[in-house]
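Exercise 7. Given the encoded structure of a 67-residue chain, write a plausible sequence.
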């Protein structure tokens, strides 16, 4: 094989660029023999369905008299 052909063959991956990234997920085997897929990564593209609830403490309807 010619050396220049080997050089051109080595440059093919550089010319094509990186392959598209695959979705990353963790596949876990369950005890019953089934599997479950857990997605891993950034979920910034998903919008929350509702705004988060504000956490408030419970208060009595009237003020307690302190003695």
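Solution.
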């Amino acid at each position: 094989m010619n050396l220049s052909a080997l050089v051109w063959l080595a440059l093919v991956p550089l010319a094509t660029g990186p392959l598209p990234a695959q979705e990353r997920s963790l596949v876990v085997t369950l005890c019953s023999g089934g599997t479950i897929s857990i997605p891993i990564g950034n979920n910034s593209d998903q919008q929350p369905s509702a705004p988060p609830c504000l956490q408030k403490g419970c208060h009595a309807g009237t003020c307690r008299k302190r003695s």
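Remark. Strands lie at 25-29, 35-39. Students should compare their own answers with the one above.
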